[in-house]
Design a protein that fits this description.
The protein has 16 helices and no strands. By secondary structure, it is mostly helical. The chain is flat, with a radius of gyration of 23 Å.
């Protein structure tokens, strides 16, 4: 009886420490976020004596303000998304998609791609596992497009920089592109352009759900570790992107980008996508630049098209996919996805 009581007391104490710590972390995070701009305005303007309306002052202030803001947004959103994703695994996703026909399967695959842990480095094993388990090629491609395109980094930064409206547009557009691109690829029946060994691969043994048995302490620890891991990987891109954004914010003429890449230029979206496809970056590196370009008057549709092309069609992922896809299928994949992104860019420019 005493041992049972001690166990219950220990469990309650751990629960109070866990949720109390999360509450304290949330309060500290919110206070830092609210005080970020007043602090840097005071430090740059008052302490260092820079004119915040000058090129140098506004550029320096932009760099430090956006660096802290983006780091806070990344830490908060990545933690929350990782905890939520701990209830979903690639193994469970594969089981859910098994036996689903095209159409419904594409919608489900794109939706699951948003909430399933995935990165470019896991593109090849995920592709092999999906196709080898009998999931149609088009459905698999919908998952592979949606997962890196609509990711927690992009959502966190868009939400913090532009608000709920552009963020929802981005998520909706990303899902539509993934669904339609996967469906079109599936309709073409391009299995002959997949490397033969993929279909020869046999999955052995029972599928083990890697999320089974996780406690709340495990999930919280996963969230903390994922925040640290992602920040370690992206900080160089983040600083480069914010640095470019600060330079544009401080030194580019106010109407330069609106004049040459505005909604009136019929080729602006097309050029943005063509530039974004071979560009090696990620959402953390590209979004500070997007923020500065938007402030200078470039339309949201052109900016989202540029970001989508950079994130969804990155050169490193294409190189990895070459192990399982023949060049013709990679070309179709890039072309269909790029056409969808271009269409979204023109549509958003027309309605925003």
């Amino acid at each position: 009886m005493s041992a049972t009581t001690d166990t219950g007391t220990s469990t309650r104490r751990k629960s109070i420490q866990r949720w109390g710590g999360l509450l304290l972390a949330t309060v500290v995070w919110w206070a830092l976020y609210l005080l970020n701009q007043p602090f840097w305005d005071w430090l740059v303007g008052r302490v260092f004596g820079l004119d915040l309306t000058s090129r140098l002052g506004s550029g320096v202030n932009f760099f430090f303000l956006d660096t802290v803001k983006i780091l806070l947004l990344l830490a908060g959103i990545i933690f929350i998304v990782t905890v939520l994703r701990s209830f979903m695994s690639v193994e469970r996703t594969r089981a859910l998609l098994g036996g689903k026909r095209e159409g419904i399967g594409n919608v489900l695959a794109a939706s699951l791609g948003v909430v399933t842990p995935f990165c470019s480095c896991s593109a090849v094993p995920a592709f092999i596992g999906f196709v080898a388990s009998g999931i149609p090629l088009g459905v698999t491609m919908s998952f592979l497009i949606a997962s890196p395109l609509v990711n927690e980094v992009a959502i966190a930064l868009l939400l913090g920089l532009f608000g709920i409206g552009p963020t929802l547009l981005y998520v909706s557009a990303g899902l539509v592109i993934a669904i339609l691109a996967g469906f079109i690829i599936g309709r073409f029946k391009l299995e002959r352009w997949v490397e033969p060994f993929v279909f020869e691969t046999k999955l052995r043994g029972k599928i083990i759900d890697s999320t089974a048995g996780l406690t709340w302490d495990d999930r919280i620890q996963m969230g903390i570790e994922e925040v640290a891991s992602i920040l370690r990987k992206i900080w160089p891109y983040l600083l480069v992107g914010i640095g470019l954004g600060a330079a544009i914010h401080g030194w580019a003429p106010q109407d330069f980008f609106a004049r040459y890449a505005g909604a009136d230029n019929p080729f602006a979206v097309l050029i943005a996508v063509l530039v974004g496809i071979p560009l090696y970056s990620n959402a953390a590196g590209i979004l500070p630049l997007i923020d500065a370009l938007y402030a200078k008057g470039m339309p949201m549709g052109t900016l989202l098209a540029f970001m989508m092309a950079t994130v969804a069609l990155s050169l490193p992922e294409m190189i990895l996919l070459r192990r399982v896809l023949k060049p013709k299928l990679i070309a179709v994949f890039v072309s269909v996805t790029a056409v969808g992104i271009i269409g979204v860019g023109y549509l958003f420019n027309a309605i925003l």
